[in-house]
Amino acid sequence: MGMDDEDVDEKTLLSVDSKGAGTPPLEEEAVPETRIAQCPPRRRLHWLRKLAYGVGHVFNDLAASMWFTYLILFYHKVIELDNALAGTLLLIGQVVDGLSTPVIGYLCDITPFWFFGFGRRKLWHIMGTVLVAVSLFFFWHKCLPCKSHSTPLGWEIVWYAVFIAIFQFGWASVQISHLSLIPELTDDEEERVGLNAIRTSFTLLSNLAVFVTMWVLLNVADKKEYIGPAAEWSFSGAVLGIIFFGLIFSAIFHLGTVEPCSRAQQREEKQDGKRVAWFQWFLKPQLYMVAGIYMGTRLIVNVSQVYTPLYLVDTLHLPKESVAIGPLAIYISGFLTTLFLRVINKFIGRYMTYFCGLALTWGALLWFWMQEAPAQTEHPQVEQITVYGSTVLLGAGGSTVLVTSLSMVADLIGPTVGSGAFVYGLMSFTDKVSNGVAVQIVQALHPCKSTNPKHVCCSACAKFYRIVLSAVPGGATLCALICLAILTLYVYRRTRQLRDPTFDTSD
């Protein structure tokens, strides 16, 4: 969707300061002059600052890659929990994360600059980093107090659930504080897209690192032909590496990123003397449209990430190293795609870029549905290679919709960065809860209720994972498309009304 420079564009219309017809105006909370910081004008960010910002989410990215790609696989095939219990643990984490994000967002917005000169965003970032570091290992390893076979299963679940809850609260703190820095670091729309692209590029590189590591550990260190209890240290060893390198990248972020106006005792950044109260965001119809797009995007990316490894080994009956190669193909194609997104966004706009990402995703999901197991074809070796074509397509589509949806959220916040973390918290709430519920429903519907050994899937798995990997992300793309259409119509009507005050928006 393109507009002339002299007209109101889609980014401006998403901003909370743009008041359209039929939308109740937001009351703005005046900030006393004594609380307004005398901040220097923001300049374009040096490329080193951009890179330092980009690595600030690497620890989270490494941990999230393990969480979404391997958690169900780990608890079902290595720890040998039932499918429903594995889904319950993931749901617990998602709900804790989802409930934490709006609260953390609000607290992050109102936190003053008081702690050894740390800005409020960086303060929450370092707190979250510590929580992630101290909790991550304990739910990627067999329950330490439960070595005895007489230990009740309930205690084992409680053990994992406690550390998962700590991890998810810390993870949410890092995510919200890092995302909400984007509108504060720069006012330039292109630079915001660039920061999102850099952030996503490091996300993709982090995933690549995890998948290469898992391929080495599963293919070289573990000689078994299948994934079972013997693979425990392949997962635990990968997590120890994540903690080590994650802390290094977090330190680089804190040393290289300067939060604007980060002076001790500072309480408010200057926003033309005004800021928007958090509850007034709920009066903006754009909030719900963008939230629907963001939720659909995260369902596409995360659900496919959870079930692609299981689809490869249980539906297509590929060797165990495919659980690393398949996701690796997704993230290589995704990384390459992000390199061009800034230019594409500039020429065809946010909405058309997002639609193109949905089209690529539809192609990948259709491919997943039609793909035959290589062993059942005339040329199994050739077919095994072509299997990864669908994952390449999924990576390109997923990264396109993810980067673009994050840019839409930044556009929605606009210049009202004082409550930016709260908005990111709301977006993350829809993401986490919807993903947790979706995975829990899928696990509850799993056809294999009891197998022996538990890490061996029943014959009904093949069809089940084919349906899941096509239908659940497919439904999410439909949800995102509907929200995109409503948002496009909303922006069009507001544009007409702003150009021509006599235009009737009730038609």
UniProtKB/TrEMBL annotation:
GO terms for cellular component: plasma membrane. Pfam families: MFS_2. It comes from the Eukaryota. GO terms for molecular function: symporter activity. GO terms for biological process: carbohydrate transport. The keyword Transmembrane helix applies. Keywords: Membrane, Transmembrane, Transmembrane helix. The keyword Transmembrane helix applies. The chain crosses the membrane at residues 51-75, 95-116, 123-141, 157-181, 202-221, 233-255, 276-295, 324-344, 351-370, 464-492. Residues 1-33 are annotated as: Disordered. CDD domains: MFS_MFSD12. Belongs to the major facilitator superfamily. This is Major facilitator superfamily domain-containing protein 12. It comes from Geodia barretti (Barrett's horny sponge).
